# Entry
Amino acid sequence: MDDQHAIMMETMNELRLALVQGAKRTQANELLDKLIEFTRLHFWNEELLLERHGFPGLAGHRAEHRRLLAQITESAHRLQHNESLPMGDLLLFLHDWFIDHVEDVDRQYGPWMNEHNVY
Ligand SMILES: [Fe+2]
Ligand SMILES: [Fe+2]
# Structure
């Protein structure tokens, strides 16, 4: 899971860098799509893992994933259909939720897994 978190962080940095370097909107949109697709995949993998091991906080974690994904997809969609909206705001938002989620919500299952000798 940590590897996937690292890839998400990298993709976000890639997007930030592209924007700073004045990338074309289409290129930024592509990177954004890539990030969303990967996030979807990661959430799915994570939920599968938690489900397989009967993690008691799964329902809440899954709800949080759903909420985030809906929020990102919605913002990205709006952004991709309105060229005048600033992409930097979305990037800030993405970065914040990523840090919050990975460092708070995702941290809750690690110790539980260790206690139950998963891994
Ligand atoms: Fe998660
Ligand atoms: Fe995660």
Notes: The pocket of fe (ii) ion (ligand 2) is lined by residues 1, 5, 42, 46, 102, 106 (CB under 6 Å). The mean pLDDT is 89. The chain is about 80% helix and 0% strand.
